Amino acid sequence: MRAFRYARASDPADAATLVAGEPDAVYLGGGTNLVDLMKLGVLRPGLVVDVSRLPYDRIEHLPDGGVLIGGAARGGRVGRDDVLRRRYPALIRALLSGASAQIRGQATLAGNLLQRTRCPYFQNTTVPCNKRDPGSGCSAIPGAHRDLGVIGTSDHCVATHPSDLAVALAAYDAVVEVRRRDGTEVLVPIGDLYRLPGDTPWIETVLEPGDLITGVQLPPPPDGAVATYRKVRDRWSFAFATVSVAAVLTADEVRLALGGVAPKPWRLTATERLLAGTDPTDDEVRAATRAAFADARPLPDNAFKIELAVDLVAAVFRDLRPVGAGR
Hints:
By secondary structure, the protein is an alpha+beta fold. It has helices spanning 12-20, 34-40, 75-80, 82-87, 89-98, 101-106, 109-113, 120-123, 164-171, 190-193, 269-275, 282-291, 304-320, and strands spanning 5-8, 25-28, 47-50, 59-61, 67-70, 175-179, 185-189, 212-218, 226-232, 243-249, 254-259, 266-267. Among the domains are: 5-52, Uridine Diphospho-n-acetylenolpyruvylglucosamine Reductase, domain 2, CATH 3.30.43.10; 226-320, Enolase-like, domain 1 (2-Layer Sandwich), CATH 3.30.390.
């Protein structure tokens, strides 16, 4: 048992002051990831600040047709919301595929976005890991890397981000609300929230000490959009994505985000540009998706993920391709 202090934040300012004031302090939401990592000895915070009772658990339907989901909203409640189920189907499919009902009932939205990688070397404190112990090396590159990243990685880290929900939010162009330590609020597009590993893989987001995710803004889905989230995993029961795709398509617009391939939700911007406003054949979808991996850095045991992603995007297009896009 490792001793740590616990504090329940009375208000947002109190929470930020507590966390920013100590280098080894962390926020606690639902605890479904944090507590596991504390048990493994991966994280050893001296202070745990409980923010689960702060007033950020609302789901607000906005006049413009968008939705604001509070950072403390539990996954179970999000998954039951009728408007979200009707207007943002890819989000709900991602949420339901990412965890059991019991975990969804406990986990918070902000905690989901900030969960740590499931790379086995990050979770094993007996082996080197640059993300856990800066400068120690990456055991995954010469080791078991089948489930790890093929794009956006570096010579220092090939870990993937585990969130299904973040992938769907990326396809919906969601924006993250962040409360700074000084009380100011900033909006961060979800694609800009995460940092690529480069030579500092232990710095995973643009958040600063004391920053608190208070909510996520979902803009109204495009008119006439069809959307889905599809996930390939090693077993049907609860498992992290080998590759997943969130797609939001209209006759004129294509939005695609992948999970399981990178350290962050990976938008296929090159593919989107090639396919927008067209009625592509299966071969054209495959070629456009493959082109997005021009800068990929696959390792021997995970190179298959590129063709798997190509197959997955092609399958989604066959299911969702809008009628009337026309060439």
